[in-house]
Write a structure and sequence with these properties.
heterodimer, A: 205 residues, alpha/beta, Rossmann fold, three-stranded mixed β-sheet, 6 helices, globular, B: 258 residues, two-stranded antiparallel ribbon
Chain lengths: 205, 258
Amino acid sequence: MIAVIDYGIGNVKSVANMLRKTGHDSQITSDPLVVEQADKIILPGVGAFDAGMEQLNQSGLLDALNRRVLKENTPILGVCLGAQLFANSSEEGVKAGLGWIDSNVVKFDFSESDKPLKIPHMGWNYVNLDKKHPLFEGVPEPMRFYFVHSYHYACNDKSNILATSHYGYSFTCAVVRNNIMGVQFHPEKSHKHGMQMLRNFAERC
Amino acid sequence: MLLPRVIPCLLLHKGGLVKTIKFKKARYIGDPINAVKIFNEKEVDELLLIDIDATREEREPHYQQIEDIVGEAFMPICYGGGVRSIEQIQRLFSLGVEKVSLSSAAIKNPKIIEEAAERFGRQSIIVTLDIKKMGFRKQYQVVTHNATKNTGQAPLETALRMERLGAGELLINNVDCDGDMMGYDIKLTRQITEVLKIPVVALGGAGSLRDLQKVIQNGGASAASAGSLFVYQGKLRGVLINYPSQSELRALFQEEIL
């Protein structure tokens, strides 16, 4: 069973909808007992970094998540803010992140640019893989995903970079470390590309 | 490479999908879920879903119908119509809607924009301004309640105020262009995009793919939305749900790729 974490932030319903379309049931939950028993975990989320960490802290799920992910190597997929929370910190806030991926989350910086682009980066963009990974197996090319964000990953350990995208400059849009996967875009709202990715997470990761 | 967004606008009326001309003459187009399934196939960028009666009838959004529609949608959906409280916005997000559009409530109670942006993130709060030339001097004014009430407010000042309050995007809809398929109001779009920092979505008047290109290239819009263009075919306006292919869109926006 896949647990979709509901910590009061973000669009959990869309993730469950898209998983259902791939033939996989999920359970939207904020119950640590369900997290303890889940085969896989998805952490969605939209909004501000500190608000996300605050909500996660209050949810009472942190211990269960840390144990399942770090000790028991349960596959977890973070989406958008959910993925950013895996980092050490974010320029958006002052709270510490989960620290699962050695990285910081930084704001799009167009200060050196003649023609600064609009922030947030909103819309469909192409994604380039840095390495092969089951999560992207069979995703139709060219790979397009829906993005809405103002901050992005900056990995300290380059081996954690799974994919990049281009908006003004090239930025990390997917990260991986063993059983921990995070994507900045929204697979649950990205047509056949996102559907294949969620199917992959359910079946191959 | 980010392509400008092209967004079909679907109008809900009495449980079905309709298309209007100058916000009147609602013509039945079909079943919304069926349309969404076709738009899935076409891989549309986003969908705009507007209940054109909710505000005027002073009623709640039709949550069950919205949930059913969103449950079939593989793309982001923005819902608008009858939204006036934080609780309603919360409920819409819980159904799987990505963005909520506020229109008359944003004019009447601007604080709601501030509160909603703070709580749900700016990117998810859209303000829609319906704009119409009014009075003997034919000046642009913001109208509400399906263009039956004139707020007396000028579009530009209202747009700037909405941006300051925290709107993540502004949708501008020229009522006089609605359904005429003669092209967007480029001048009005330009006036607003020149001063706003947030993305502007243009709606009203698109009759060809070239119109979409123009409103983005010349009007400075970040996204182009259209109703008639994506539900009609030919001069006789036979109902046919359609949307340009990815290669057509890439060719159309070659110079706009960011």
